[in-house]
Amino acid sequence: xxxxxxxxxxxxxxxxxxxxxxxxxxxxxxxxxxxxxxxxxxxxxxxxxxxxxxxxxxxxxxxxxxxxxxxxxxxxxxxxxxxxxxxxxxxxxxxxxxxxxxxxxxxxxxxxxxxxxxxxxxxxxxxxxxxxxxxxxxxxxxxxxxxxxxxxxxxxxxxxxxxxxxxxxxxxxxxxxxxxxxxxxxxxxxxxxxxxxxxxxxxxxxxxxxxxxxxxxxxxxxxxxxxxxxxxxxxxxxxxxxxxxxxxxxxxxxxxxxxxxxxxxxxxxxxxxxxxxxxxxxxxxxxxxxxxxxxxxxxxxxxxxxxxxxxxxxxxxxxxxxxxxxxxxxxxxxxxxxxxxxxxxxxxxxxxxxxxxxxxxxxxxxxxxxxxxxxxxxxxxxxxxxxxxxxxxxxxxxxxxxxxxxxxxxxxxxxxxxxxxxxxxxxxxxxxxxxxxxxxxxxxxxxxxxxxxxxxxxxxxxxxxxxxxxxxxxxxxxxxxxxxxx
Length: 486
What we know:
By secondary structure, this protein is of the alpha/beta class. The protein is 35% helix and 25% strand.
């Protein structure tokens, strides 16, 4: 906690120290020599000689590292690679995870999450029982000895201190199974009669496991199975669509929810105040942050953390102790405070609809759905949306495909409430909807139960860090889903 207090006033100093450390460590790598890391005296020198990078720019270097080459993007040989959702040209990205990055970024985030939770809940009995940690799977990397590729969560479980296995469930062999449906059942059976006090994972996949626990137990609420359950550390996808379902499943007033921002590329944020949904940006790990002013129309200037302003939308750019340099991660954020630096995730740089100048982002969608659910008592399980560019009557609109865990009594009313709220939170959308001239009222299609799970299964993306794409300028995903929605 003493270290975390430095985030209050020392943000710029912490970040300059991180950058100096990264440049010093990597100065003798191939990338460091090419971009004059040894000569860099600070931030201005660093950005003068180092370009912005996408995955496509570093893909060949990462593939060489995966084949065992040393000192390419980070010193030594990097043995672990987190498999992340793909790019335009590839099904998957492979994000290097160095030994230093594992400790100073990913595990550091776990430690600080617990520290902040215990600060806010000094009466906690967290360590009296077990942690149910939901992870993915991994496989050998090009058959190189000791080298693995897979979900980040699987890499974390594989390398965790063996003592942690005494306080976690399920057993390691079960946690790393690749077939999510088999794993889901085994996790539920192994955890059923344990004293689980805390759970960690992606909300969508964790909900699936908890529902299986309820089926096996025959109970009505989860606290009847685990009376000492007190906290869910969640991340990976927005919690808003799932909150109501968790609150119905877990009715105990002692239950807490704590959001974290942990991605394959690094651990970036922790919700440090239960009353504030924004997260504290973690500044003293092996991650140096930059931010690109952005809109769906294009990219603006790239600035360091100490130059950001509140209430602007930025795309994140990171340099890390895993060998990513000025890497555009693809997430967008908005700062709610700059002392300390606190933010909310607003979406993905490629997850938006801007077919008609409406600039609809995921943050708008989440607010709209939350409002429509609040007004109608409905509960959304999964959703995606895409534009209909022009129908036979030359009309354009947005098409929403929503799977409800509790459907509204009147779908048309839900659609109208969603549409109205989107206009309230997004002036561009409101302008395009004016008198139905450009955009017609949105179209809502109800998905059958299990549609999104079936689609993810068909694509080999059940479990782990896999996510349903929320908004898209293309109709590729929604057309696949509509074909399955029979």
